[in-house]
Design goal:
By secondary structure, the chain is of the alpha+beta class. It has two domains: 311 residues, Pnp Oxidase, Chain A (Roll); 140 residues, UbiD C-terminal domain-like, CATH 3.40.1670. It is built from 15 helices and 23 strands. A hairpin with a 6-residue loop joins strand 7 and strand 8. The radius of gyration is 24 Å and the shape is globular. It starts with a helix and ends in a 10-residue tail after the last helix. Bound molecules: flavin mononucleotide (FMN). The site of flavin mononucleotide has 17 residues, from strand 8 and helix 7.
């Protein structure tokens, strides 16, 4: 089937089909299979082969879902699904207009809290205490130099603030340590890290749920920076227009999605009590920046899973692959943060391919007053969704098409005076996966790096004298195009 034929645009779907696909992994699979947007792959080896096939799929801008069954060593019915997060259905049209629509639909509803139910497919199979054995699931070794098998890549790590009762979900990688133990790598400052530290400060083990197969909407909200104190279950409910159904874990009482494919429950002791070597792991910036190092573990006391469970896989890959177009969620979150901080005139936020969801932020504004561009650049660099690993922020005028790298390059080349229109800020929020944090800084426990803010805008004070742009005026160009249409057929694709 040709690429164009298997693309499922969000706009091709009825609202009902869209909500079903977002809120139910198996509905997404059925829909994608029906539309030719899914490849069934039988007999692959979870040791490196699945990871390599996944990386090959990213050569396509709209990779199909990959559903692996009969994995080597696991037989039929223990499946891995990949590319669910980047399904075309959720991305929509990759344009600023597509992002505006995404933002509008995302922001139109207030959060809807989850509802607790007593039954759910996740309870079809339960392992308790001595019976716990997560080796029955096909955790893959994704990349050659990874330190082991990672069961959690597109994963929910659910924890509750012991003081406020706020439930947080974050996506943090989860490595198999043994049949009953996993390690979780959480960068400092992430909400899951702040919460577990509160439990440890009270002398307690942190209760945790790790869910490794679930509705796509949950993965989407878990991997996006929401406000501190905002619950991802509520955000997922808002996107679905109905509450997410959860059961309560037998040991921790934490919410577990009732339709989850596979979820574990247990407790994370403080590092002073137990750590295990974690990593190295091929990370999304495109490097192995973290060597094997000690990380806290979850001691698993319960495992819940559906019949024929599906493990979700979304391992990192170099952010230059066409299939790794940064998701709208990160761009929308940064745009919201700018507006919430009171920055007016924001016309667009974009993250170009190559910078992943973090490194490069491009912001277009309609300059309204002196210092406005600086306000936008500083807020984007410091705001929650922009701070962590937000290496380069470029502010441009509204006439620049920020989705076109050539336009952004042109703004840099022609409106940016490096000496007078640049801020460099040291000591900013970074993480262990940042390749430029030197071995010396790591040894000194200084996990920070610098930022550059580039104001590639017409300088406010002499903007009226800034040279006129050399391009045919839009309305005249359209009129001429209509008049000479028959001579311009070569422009049709
Ligand atoms: C597929 C995927 C894997 C991720 N892996 C990690 C990870 O291993 N550690 C980490 O700290 N953040 C990781 N992140 C980023 C966090 O999920 C993201 O920063 C999120 O906002 C964290 O939730 P929190 O804001 O509630 O802490 C990952 C994101 C995605 C989408």
């Amino acid at each position: 089937m040709k690429k164009e034929e298997r693309r499922i645009q969000a706009s091709d779907l009825s609202p009902e089909d869209r909500v079903n696909a977002l809120g139910d992994l198996r509905a997404l699979i059925e829909l994608s299979r029906r539309r030719g947007a899914l490849e069934d792959i039988h007999g692959a080896d979870p040791h490196l082969e699945v990871g390599a096939l996944y990386e090959l799929s990213l050569r396509d801008s709209y990779p199909p879902l990959l559903l692996f069954d009969e994995l080597k060593g696991f037989g039929a019915g223990k499946r891995i699904l990949m590319n669910a997060r980047f399904s075309d259905i959720f991305t929509g049209e990759v344009s600023l207009d597509g992002l505006r629509k995404f933002r509008a639909s995302r922001n139109k509803r207030a959060g809807i809290p989850p509802v607790v139910v007593s039954h759910g497919p996740v309870l079809e199979n339960v392992q308790r205490d001595d019976d716990v054995d997560i080796s029955i699931f096909p955790a893959a070794k994704w990349h050659e130099h990874d330190g082991g098998a990672y069961i959690g890549t597109e994963v929910l790590v659910i924890a509750r603030d012991p003081d406020t009762g706020w439930t947080n979900i974050g996506t943090y990688r989860v490595q198999v340590q043994d049949k009953k133990t996993v390690s979780v790598f959480i960068e400092p400052g992430k909400h899951g890290s702040l919460i577990r530290e509160k439990w440890w400060a009270q002398g307690k083990h942190c209760p945790m749920v790790v869910c490794v197969g679930q509705a796509p909407v949950l993965g989407m909200v878990a991997g996006t920076t929401l406000k501190y104190g905002e619950c991802e279950f509520d955000a997922a409910g808002a996107r679905l227009g109905k509450p997410v159904e959860v059961i309560e874990g037998e040991l921790t009482g934490l919410p577990i999605p009732a339709t989850a494919e596979i979820a574990f429950e247990g407790f994370m002791p403080p590092p002073s009590e137990e750590t295990r070597p974690e990593g190295p792991f091929a990370e999304w910036p495109g490097y192995y920046a973290t060597n094997a190092h000690p990380e806290p573990v979850v001691r698993i006391g319960r495992v819940y899973y559906r019949n024929d469970p599906i493990l979700l896989g979304q391992p990192p890959a170099k952010p230059t692959f066409p299939g790794r177009q940064p998701s709208f969620a990160g761009m929308a979150a940064l745009w919201d943060a700018l507006e919430n901080a009171g920055v007016p005139g924001v016309k667009g936020v974009w993250k170009p391919l190559g910078g992943g969801v973090r490194f490069v932020n491009v912001i277009s504004i309609e300059q309204l007053f002196q210092g406005h561009a600086k306000m936008a650049g500083l807020v984007a660099t410091g705001a929650g969704p922009g701070a962590y690993l937000g290496r380069i922020t470029i502010v441009v005028d509204e006439d620049i098409d920020i989705t076109n790298p050539a336009e952004v390059m042109w703004a840099l080349a022609t409106r940016w005076d490096p000496k007078t229109q640049t801020d460099i800020i040291d000591g900013c929020y970074s993480g262990y996966i940042d390749p430029v944090v030197s071995p010396e800084k790591r040894a000194a426990n200084d996990i920070t790096s610098s930022r550059i803010i580039i104001y590639a805008v017409k300088p406010w004070s002499w903007r009226e004298q800034f040279p006129r742009v050399n391009t045919v005026e839009q309305s005249y160009s359209s009129a001429i195009e209509a008049k000479w249409k028959s001579k311009l057929n070569f422009l049709q694709t």
